[in-house]
Amino acid sequence: MPPSYTDDQIVYAVRDGLIIPAQLDRMAQGMIDLVNKTRAAMSIDNYRFDVDAHDEVAHQAAIESIVMLKNDDAILPLNADPVANPSATPQKIAVIGEFARTPRYQGGGSSHITPTKMTSFLDTLAERGIKADFAPGFTLDLEPADPALESEAVETAKNADVVLMFLGLPEAAESEGFDRDTLDMPAKQIALLEQVAAANQNVVVVLSNGSVVSVAPWAKNAKGILESCLLGQAGGPALADVIFGQVSPSGKLAQSIPLDISDDPSTLNWPGEEGHVDYGEGVFVGYRYYDTYGKVVDYPFGYGLSYATFEIADVAAAKTDANTATVTATVTNTSDVDAAETVQVYVAPGKADVARPKHELKGFTKVFLKAGESKTVTIDLDERAFAYWSEKYNDWHVEAGEYAIEVGVSSRDIADTVAVALDGDGKTQPLTEWSTYGEWEADPFGAKIVAAVAAAGEAGELTKLPDNAMMRMFLNPMPINSLPTLLGEGGKKIAQFMVDEYAKLAK
User: Fold this and answer.
1) pLDDT per residue over 78-98, tens digit each?
2) Global pTM?
3) Separation between Cα atoms, residue 190 and residue 197, nearest integer Å
4) Helix, strand, coil content of the chain in percent (nearest 5)
5) Coil, strand or helix: which one is 236?
6) Sign of torsion over alpha carbons 469, 474, 479, 481
């Protein structure tokens, strides 16, 4: 029996004589690899890892993951941290939302782990001596709203200079075990936000969610929005660092935020029928679909604000080999705030033999810049950056031609576009009578034979092919063994001539 086989769309693997789904096989192999990686350390007598050092790694990862979506009137950062702003008059802060006290720091189901530490946002405020009034506002479930909790939250908001509202998806709303049927947050949270915003216009929403949520329906009620997703065990300190200005937010969206769930192409086939789901969107997933077909989105892929401002200039691309290139750009921090920016490189193919997205992210780099500082960044693009998976060749394929290189800070905020011409990988397939006339023209050998057909037609040795736009429309997609349909016996002779000549050239 082979090491793997497919049965009714499920791929199986054979391991030690057992037949198991390939996904489980990969998970098992991953666990084995993890055990092997840690074996050396765990073999040391009385080995103990540094809990605080690991927590700091989680802290830094969380900081860099926070995406600032909105910051009207520069409502952030706040000046309530006596350490970060010792000379400022502290703002009176209200913290509303159970997520601030009971963080949603990880996914559900098999992703559950036991952290070494768990520091909520409220824990962090207490540790840093930052005063704030707290009201939970709602419960972390899908039950109806509690009027008493809502009333308490609104009263708390009335007495504050700024309200930090921690909203998001409770664990019951998303899981690997079931599909979501809406992008909206629980209605009771949106209703509470509306009540709080009516009592205090200075609201910053902090989101906790494992998958994208709609923002447009409620964004008017918030001056600031932080998308924190699931920040892990050190999410509280990371949020405090960003909210109170010890660091500038530098995260970028790894997923577009659409205006409505029906805008996503997967909804055409979801949830499937009769036990079958067709992944009909093909390569047009996420921003590849939205950008290719000009769909309006709320926030594009790669988006993320900062307390600083940046400028990208001097974009250039140079071919480094037949099908590789390097991209350079100069990034300048044009503000008085130290911060990081992520330079993103998208590749836009020219005319292609297959349907390809308008552009695809193929490289990025995050660069930290002091206020006023400039740096030149370099991003290398290998052959795969320009390739697509070809069913015809059963391999990755790079077509010859010109490719646009777009450099920007999101998929829809492109600073500059340059071009690079590539040789292509030269892949060809044998031509047969079933190959289309257009495929013959595109093939190195086939093109010579097509020219020979034209010359023979001019000389009266073969039927002359009509040279007009209408005929080309018929010819290009037509297998040459169908030429008799258009040209009768003359078409049959042309097809035989082409096959015979190809046999001579391709020896």
Assistant:
1) 987 666 667 677 899 999 999
2) 0.86
3) 11
4) 30, 25, 40
5) helix
6) negative
Q: How far is CA 355 from CA 22, 358, 359, in A?
A: 29, 9, 12
- Interatomic CA distance for residues 453 and 462, integer angstroms: 7
Structure tokens at 217: 């329906």
pLDDT tens for residues 97-113? 999 999 999 887 777 88
Which residues have C-beta within 8 Å of that of residue 228, sequence separation ≥ 6?
62, 65, 66, 67, 206, 207, 208, 235, 238, 239
156 three-class SS:
helix
In sequence order, what E strands does 209-359 have? 224-227, 257-258, 297-299, 310-321, 324-333, 339-348
Rounded to whole angstroms, the Cα distance separating 200 from 158 reads: 6
Quickly state the pLDDT bin for 2 (edges 50, 70, 90): very low
Counted residue by residue, the chain has a size of 507
How far is the C-alpha of 502 from the C-alpha of 499, rounded, in Å?
5
Token couple for 62: 């969380």
State both tokens at 303: 């988006």
Q: Spell out the residues 6+ positions from residue 132 whose beta carbon is closer than 8 angstroms to its own.
A: 80, 93, 94, 95, 122, 125, 164
Cα 327 → chain centroid = 21
Distances (CA, A) of 494 to 486, 489, 497: 12, 9, 5
Q: In what order do the strands lie in the sheet with 360-369?
A: 360-369, 339-348, 401-410, 413-422
Q: Which helix (H) or strand (E) element contains residue 117?
A: none
